[in-house]
Structures are given as C-alpha cells and as structure tokens.
C-alpha cells in the first residue's frame, strides 16, 4: 500500500512508524465496525403510568398475580385464565343451556300425552288418529284443538277416543266433550278411567318473550309413523294477531268480523299433520305455554309434508285456563 503522504511529496515514513500507524488504523476500523448504537430513550407513557413487571406470587385466591411497579407499589390483577375459571364458578358465563335440559322436559311431557282418535262406523275410514292431546288439572281432563274433534253437519256421527302410548300396547280410553271454544280452537275433554299425569301450565297471563327456546311433542303423521311421540324444537319468533290483515274488503265476511282478536305465538318450528293439539312447552323446564294449532302452508296442502314452511302457530295457555274455569275444572 502506498501512503497518501507520499503522494503529496512528503518524505517517506520509517518502516516501524508505518507499521504502527497501520495497526492503529486497523484497530480503529474494527472498533467502528463493532461499535453498538446507544439505546433509545424510553418514550414517556401517557398520564405517567408506571411501567410494571410481571412477577407471579403464590398466595392470593383465584390465582391473582402480584405485579411490582417501578415505584415499589404492588398491583394485584386477575389473569384471563383465572377470570374465566372464577366466572364459571359463580355462574357468570350462563346457566345450563336449554338443549341440555330438553331430554328431561320431553320425558315429563310424554307422560301426559294421548292420541285423539275418531271412530265413525259409517265413514269410509271408520277410525283415524286425528291429533294430539294432553292432560291438565286432575289428570282426567284432556286439552286438544277444536278442529281435531270438529264434525261438519254432513259428516256421520263419530265417537271420540284416546290412545295412551305409555306401553308397547297402547291403552284405549273413551273421551267425552266437556267444553269447546271454536274462537280459540280449543276443546276440553273428559277422559275415562284412572287419571294421567297432568302437565304444568304456565302460571302467568302474559306470554313468554320472543327468542325463547321451545318444543312440541305429539303424534305427527300418526297413520304412517304409528303412535310414537315425536319432538320438534324451535323458538318463539313473534307474538302475532290471530287474524292476518286482509288485502281488501272482498275477503271480509260475517264470521271473520265476529272473530275475537287476540295474540298467538308464531314459532320458528316445523310441525306436521297430527301435531295439532300438541303441547308447546319451554325446552328447559317442560312448562306448557300453549297449544299448537296451525302451520303456515308454503305452497299447497299436498306438499305440506315434503315442503314445510317451518312456521307454526300456537294458542297461549291463558286460554286453556279460561276454558277450564268455564267448566269448573282445575287447571
């Protein structure tokens, strides 16, 4: 290497001096390359919050962690895992879901169910399973829909019966009409023989809130599936008037004008023929809040099974109590 001083006409340096300078330059270059940049000053925190350092400490309940601040203070916090554990212990994360209690509710309801049959010797089909009913009050009275037992003037006389599916061989009983309410599509019947376990009716006159988890249990498609109780689940989607608004006056008649107005349950729930008269009950407790009585037909009656709408309707249980009171029957 040629020293820069020599290029400017300066006298050449002695070899030992040149070697010392070379070593000095090399050391400085190495020191520069390995020099570390100074640490940045810490950015001040807003509101002069103290910087804390986690330092777990055993002892406090619910797994609290002790944290020491820079100023010597100790701050106790709850870790996320501890909060979830404590919340679950105190039930803050919710109670037992309705779906978990549903099997118990279904088992209770099944003990109160009967299949409503009609027997007309002169009819083309002498006997049929018309719908579902359930016991109330003293266990000797059955509630079902009026349209389940209704007979038009041109139909032959019929006898009403009940099938109790409590065993492999259903028990047959006789039924007698006690009181009917066509306006509310309800019928109160008297059951022969020993009492059946009654349902627990909703004690309030008010209706349950929208979004409440509910279920129905009955005998859908009884002629096809047999006397086997089947359960459908859903929610209360609305409290709607029992009469839909009519598009114009041509659809109004005397019967429609005389029909009393009241609120019924609209359900997000699929029901089938045979479910009429089934108890509508709370999924978590089995308390009966109404009687299923209708379903919305999506296209045609012939396709109600293959193409259900998933929208059903039920009469509130307050009208069950009113009908039983008119007949002096405890409910």
UniProtKB/TrEMBL annotation:
A Pfam family of this chain: Trypsin_2
Q: Give the residue spans that cross the bilayer.
A: none
Q: Which residues form the signal peptide?
A: none
Record PANTHER family: PROTEASE DO-LIKE 5, CHLOROPLASTIC, SERINE ENDOPROTEASE DEGS
Q: What is this protein called?
A: Trypsin-like peptidase domain-containing protein
